[in-house]
Structure prediction request, 311 residues.
Amino acid sequence: MVTATPETVNGDLSRSVTSREQAKRHRKFVIIGFLVIPLSLMTLFSVYPFLQLIYFSMTDWDGLSPDSNFVGLDNYHSLLVEGRGLLLPMVNSLYYFAGSLMQLALATYFAVILNRGMPGSSMYRLVLFLPFVLNSVAVSIIFRDFLQIGGGIDAVFEVLGLGAFKQQWVQDPDLVKWSLVFASVWRYMGFQLLITYGALQAVPTDQYEAARIEGASEWQQFWYITFPSIKMILGLQIILSTVGSLEVFEVPFLITGGANGTKTFIMAAIEEAFNFRRLGMASAMSMVLIMIVIVVITIQRLFMNRGKNDA
Prediction:
């Protein structure tokens, strides 16, 4: 029988402590190694451009000259106080926000139906999701031709014997904004449908079976089972839709070019930067948009957290 001496025990303890310290240092090196690249990329492509945007918003830089003058908050004063009309395109975001709510309602409706395993549901999912994977430029050009006088939508009305309902879809100032909203809804509804459909897959089916046995109607099943299960996902989609409605660009730009009062805030900022060579003012407009997005997201998060706590 071998008896451990005090020197042997102390040696084992020392080696054990050394081994743990080496493992701890090795773990730190691994963590730092994994963090260096993403943090460097985030600093290079997100933090630094954001700091530059803040600086440019306080200058009168034209975007080309090597020199610029620091003007402090003059651009913000001109934008928010003097009322130059640069904020007016922000009103158009309300149309897209209303459209995004309709889009979310349609996406939820179709997701609930497809989640019931109806025949051909895979094909319907593909058809509804397909517009989202199409190139946005191609979609906008298709709708530009589709909504023209004598275009595709007028031809459909003619075939259906509804020629009296033909309209100037993109020439009439009262209709053009809703026409663009329709194009946007068609383009992005598949994305929201996919997210909602994925959330519905996590709802246990036995709850629906128990509800049917109890005689619950379809609406009661949705309101008391489906909606509570996916309301956080719907809240997230409302946040994304709100941000998206503030940043709409390609659909109105490619279909109308901002004519007939369809210019959005992003289009106005780009116009200031590249047409009028006022990059400082355009940067200030971008900062205002970022602040609005942060405020909107904060308010919505507060409402969502309150609902979560109440539940």
About this structure: The two ends are 66 Å apart (CA to CA). The longest helix spans residues 6-56. Residues 63 and 189 are 37 Å apart (CA to CA).
